[in-house]
Amino acid sequence: MAEAPRVILKSGKDQSLMRYHPWVFSGAVKKTKGSFTEGDVVDVYNNKDHFLGKGHYQPAAITVRMLTFEERGIDQAFFREKLQSAIDLRKKAGLMDDDATNVFRLVNAEGDGLPGLIIDYYNGTAVIRAHSVGMYRWFNQLVHILRELMGSRLVAVYNKSGESLPHQAQVDRQEGYLWGAEQTTRVKEHGLTFEVNWQEGQKTGFYIDQRENRELVRGYALNADVLNLFGYTGGFSVYAAAGGCRSVTTVDSSQVAIEQAEENMRLNFGQDMAHQALARDAFKYLQHNGGGFDLMVIDPPAFAKHYNVLPNAIQGYKKLNRMAIEKIRPGGIIFTFSCSQVMSRDHFRKMAFAASANTSRRVRILGQLNQPADHPINIYHPEGEYLKGLILQVDG
What positions carry a catalytic annotation? Predict the structure, then answer.
């Protein structure tokens, strides 16, 4: 039998894998053995010929995404085991049988031991997104396993990998249904209704990771005038309205997203809610029109995707939050977030401190926010903790 292809690490570069970190960076690679191409499974060894694990190879900064640290096959049984474990976790979290919520993340990449794979569940449709060619090659088998494990809960599987696959990958990027067909694009979250466009929307169509934070906003919204910046399709706005706010303004740069936000408000409240939806730049809106609000939600896209731009990103977050702190009414509440993976929780708190210190107002932290249980974080992969947020109260 031919020897499996190998990636051999430089001396001393095995320490992160010995601690079960799931990435091998290109700078750690000493040499390779055997013939393989992007997406193939390779064995990883240290410089002393000690086996470290197996993973998907790609010619990029992250050269291997580790699938296992054991001597075992990467086959249908492996993926079935991982998917079953992911489903079991969502059952324990109460998401599989919740009549009020039928949208959640089913597989969260490294958090579920399947680096490079995201699966979001939308009321019967699984939207699957690959970030590696290795995972993309398994789509047909993954559909078969999902159908077996999910049974009648699953009516369709949609491939949304066109933009998430590596840019240099030589693969067919055509998106579409891998099995089944569209039956409904409406979902329920905590009893509220949303229209989701997974075919044309950002990511898989809805920011599922903010589910519990949206519910917290509902609890703070009574009689408040609310501003939802970077509001996308209005998730936080709908929850604020459900919490009894006096008025809500949704601001997003995308006209398509703003129209969807208006539709989501109509789905839940008809024409009765005082909702203003504006396709505007959030920074400019806050600078010129940000006064008169009791509750603000600031949920921008990732300002920093790489460490080399983190300092500039921190300045962007600082400017945004400083303006919000200056503008909000006395006693007002700010929900502020970062989804930048390279922005650590410590970075984010220091940013909020600096933004507050540049004003003359008293600011308190009422809560620290994270991603929910269906977005689990592999403890050996701290990069998986990408979403962080603060609830701030501003007095004076």
Answer: 339
Q: Using one digit for the tens of pLDDT, what is the confidence trace for 225-255?
A: 999 999 999 999 999 999 999 999 999 999 9
Assigned CATH class of 6-68: mainly beta
DSSP class of residue 69? S
What pLDDT, in 10s, does the model give residues 187-226?
Answer: 999 999 999 999 988 888 899 999 999 999 999 999 999 9
Enter the CATH code of domain 76-188: 3.30.750.80
- CA 35 to CA 388: how far, in whole Å? 42
Q: Is the pTM of this model over 0.70?
A: yes
Q: Where are the domains of the chain?
A: 6-68, 76-188, 207-395
* 17, containing H or E segment: helix 15-18
DSSP 8-state assignment for residue 150: H
**Which residue, among 54, 58, 71, has the nearest Cα to 25 in the 3D structure?**
58
What is the CATH topology of the domain spanning 207-395? Rossmann fold (3.40.50)
Q: 14 and 47 in contact (C-beta within 8 Å)? A: yes
Whole-Å CA distances, 273 to 6, 182, 253, 277: 61, 30, 22, 12
Q: Check residue 320 and report its DSSP letter.
A: H
β-strands 156-159, 176-180 pairing: antiparallel
* C-alpha–C-alpha distance, residues 121 and 99, integer Å: 14
